[in-house]
Specification:
about 110 residues; about 0% strand; mainly alpha
Length: about 110
């Protein structure tokens, strides 16, 4: 078994965890922009409303998105030819790194 086949099989067996890492990384990169947008919308409200909105968005909003998007991403990546999966994952993580660098997250 060659290196590509080994990497493809390993990736497939860990794909749900890999997709979870991808989606949570996206949340880390773009979450502050979402929080800023929400802050502009509710910034003048009472402290309790702002706090409840923050908890709701972080706990339920981000959590729900991560839990819903992870299986969808895994399903989509499983549709790729098996041999191309490792390359696709490397490309995704490189693009995430570039996005994080451009947004000054690293």
């Amino acid at each position: 078994m060659g290196l590509i086949e080994w990497a493809a099989r390993w990736s497939l067996s860990h794909l749900n965890h890999i997709c979870f890492a991808i989606v949570t990384t996206l949340a880390a990169i773009y979450g502050q922009d979402i929080n800023d947008w929400i802050r502009r919308r509710i910034g003048q409200r009472h402290l309790l409303i702002r706090t409840a909105a923050f908890v709701f968005i972080c706990a339920f909003g981000y959590g729900w998105c991560i839990l819903r998007l992870t299986p969808q991403l895994a399903w989509g990546l499983r549709q790729l030819p098996t041999r191309s999966l490792p390359l696709a994952l490397i490309l995704i993580f490189v693009l995430l790194g570039i996005a994080a660098e451009r947004r000054r997250k690293i």
